[in-house]
Each structure stands twice: as C-alpha cells, then as structure tokens.
C-alpha cells in the first residue's frame, strides 16, 4: 500500500473502547503492516484493525471516531489532525486501489464476440472463472473475506474480543503462519469445529479450539490446517463455484459479487464446512511451520485411528517443538470469549 509507507512512523493518542459497553481508555494509535494498531501506554497491542475495513463514523466532525466494524461496538476516538489525515489518506488510497467497474468492464469487453459465441458452452465457464480469480486484487479479496466474516457473525454471533487477548491472536498467527502472513485470526462463539479459511487470509476458530484444550499446539495446528487449504483450493473460487458463472461474470465486469452471494456462502460454510486437505499436504504445511501434527491429530480423533498417518509422520517426532505461545498469551487466549 503505497500511501501507507508515508505514515509508518506516525502515532498519536486516542481513546479506545473494546465494545459499546466497555470503559473508555487512553491508548496509542499507530500503523502496522496493513493494520491500525491500538496499544496501551506500555506498548502492548490491544487490537489490530485491518486498514481496508476501517470506517469513519462521524465524517467532518472532531474528534474523529473510527471503527473496524460499525455494528461491532469497538471504536477509537482521535483528535490529532495529522493522524486523522493519515487514516483518511489510507482509506482513500484503499478505495482507489479497489477494482472499479469501468476498468474491469473494459477487460470483459476485450473478449472477442466470436470466441464467446463459439466456445461459450465448453470453454468459457472454466476460463472465465480462472481469469476472474487472476484479476481480483488482494485488497478486494480482503474486502470479500471481511464481508463474508460479517455474514458468518450475523448467523452465529459476534467474534470474541476480550481486550486481554488482543495481542495473543497476532502472536498465534505469526507462530503458525509466519511473520508475513496476510489476514487475521478471529475466534467465534460457535460454528463448525476447528477453523475456516476465508478470502484475504481471514481464519476463524471455534472457541472450543482454545477453551477445550490445554496445548496451544492444537490451536496452532487448526490455524495451519486451515491455511493449508489455499494450496489445493482458492476460497474465492469456492464462492464462485457455488454462486455460478453469472456471479463470476458479475465480479469480472463490475468488481463486485451479486447481492446475496456471500450470505448464501456463509450459510453453506456453516452447514457443510470444507473437509480437511490431504494428510500429505498437512504434513508438509506443519513441517514448514515447525509444528507437530500429533496433538492436532488426537484433537480430531482421540483414538488416533482416523488420523494415524498424521501421528506416524509427525515432522517433529522425537523433538521438542519450539514454543507456540507464552503462558500469558495462551491463558489470555483461552479467556477471549469471557465467561
């Protein structure tokens, strides 16, 4: 994000609320990698907001009020003119980088009418799907993932956001996926067991993953397993396959999905989540992340009968795995959904 580079060292004070009912507290606001970082006076991160999702709730009014989700209750109040200008600049830069209907429409019109007529039945559906997936930029994928997450939360409840666990989720993401992994991890109050991978790198975890197990390697394993699905299937492709060729054409020519597409996909994900990827893909992914497969395997099947290959081929067998999380982060993460 070009505009972001100008403000990497900018920070200001602010007043943050974790929810509409939470007490206001003084914080430091600064920019991270594609995120707005909310930290306490000691520099401990309290929350990370995806910059493409940040919205201003009171345009033209000071102090400015920003939120990552207008319906979620979390917000930060900023009176510093430089920081307000920086956030607004980034928001405008994100808006300009999103696909515009005119640009994508020109690409669509570039298809030869003769080719469409001759090959529509046998060639066009798969080709259009591949072409659409190739031109959708990362910022649009992040927007689709965030919107899909919103529909999932509308169906099963809002994400858990205990302030004490704000730093634990980014730490878990870095440990399981590496320091440069895009997206974010979100803990949900229900839904399918385990984790789901949404476009833009959004990974959802069922609260049971962190509450019902004492070993953080299980939570890290679910995150790594969800991220491994991208090696065999594009999550945006799954959305388009379910919605059909018209949805792919609509996205390709206008830059947006037809109304109702993401809500329908959210319902489908909750009713019939994707199966886990093949064991050999999982083993490679866990090995790359320096994670053991055995705790994850027994969490899926306590007998180990259906996950035997993951146990026998554990890439860390006979080794002590590197720490997953600090004890403080793990305890905080286990309480992220509160009582």
Q: What number of domains?
A: 2
Count of DSSP E strands?
A: 10
**What is the topology, as strand order, of the major beta sheet?**
4-3-2-1-7-6-5
Quick one: biggest sheet? 7 strands, antiparallel
Brief sketch in words of this structure:
The chain is built from 16 helices and 10 strands. It has 339 residues and is of the alpha+beta class. The protein folds into 2 domains: 96 residues, Pleckstrin-homology domain (PH domain)/Phosphotyrosine-binding domain (PTB) (PH-domain like); 156 residues, no CATH class.
Question: What report would you give on this structure?
Answer:
This protein has 339 residues and is an alpha+beta fold. The protein has two domains: 2-97, Pleckstrin-homology domain (PH domain)/Phosphotyrosine-binding domain (PTB) (PH-domain like, Roll); 139-233 and 274-334, no CATH class. It has helices spanning 2-5, 81-97, 101-109, 113-119, 124-135, 138-156, 168-177, 207-211, 216-228, 235-243, 245-254, 261-271, 279-288, 294-300, 308-312, 327-334; strands spanning 11-17, 25-31, 35-39, 45-50, 55-56, 64-67, 75-78, 184-188, 195-198, 202-206.
């Amino acid at each position: 994000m070009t505009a972001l580079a100008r403000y990497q060292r900018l920070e200001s004070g602010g007043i943050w609320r974790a929810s509409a009912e939470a007490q206001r507290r003084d914080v430091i606001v600064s920019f991270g990698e594609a995120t707005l970082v909310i930290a306490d006076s000691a520099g401990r991160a309290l929350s990370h907001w995806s910059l493409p999702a940040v919205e201003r709730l009171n345009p033209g009014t000071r102090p400015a009020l920003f939120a990552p989700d207008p319906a979620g209750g979390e917000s930060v109040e900023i009176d510093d003119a430089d920081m307000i200008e920086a956030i607004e600049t980034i928001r405008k830069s994100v808006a300009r980088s999103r696909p515009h209907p005119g640009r994508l429409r020109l690409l669509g019109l570039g298809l030869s009418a003769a080719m469409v007529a001759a090959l529509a039945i046998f060639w066009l559906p798969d080709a259009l799907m591949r072409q659409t997936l190739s031109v959708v930029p990362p910022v649009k994928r992040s927007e689709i993932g965030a919107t899909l997450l919103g529909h999932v939360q509308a169906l099963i409840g809002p994400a858990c956001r205990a302030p004490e666990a704000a730093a634990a989720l980014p730490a878990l993401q870095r440990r399981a996926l590496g320091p440069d992994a895009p997206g974010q991890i979100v803990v949900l109050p229900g839904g399918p067991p385990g984790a789901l991978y949404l476009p833009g790198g959004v990974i959802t975890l069922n609260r049971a993953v962190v509450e019902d197990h004492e070993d953080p390697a299980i939570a890290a394993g679910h995150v790594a397993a969800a991220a491994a699905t991208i090696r065999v299937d594009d999550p945006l492709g799954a959305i388009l396959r379910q919605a059909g060729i018209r949805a792919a054409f609509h996205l390709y020519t206008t830059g947006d999905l037809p109304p109702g597409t993401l809500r329908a996909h959210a319902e489908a994900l909750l009713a019939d989540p994707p199966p886990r990827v093949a064991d050999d893909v999982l083993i490679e992914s866990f090995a790359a992340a320096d994670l053991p497969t055995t705790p994850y395997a027994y969490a899926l099947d306590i007998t180990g009968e259906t996950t035997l290959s993951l146990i026998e081929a554990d890439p860390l067998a006979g080794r002590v795995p590197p720490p997953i999380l600090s004890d403080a982060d793990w305890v905080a993460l286990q309480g992220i959904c509160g009582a």
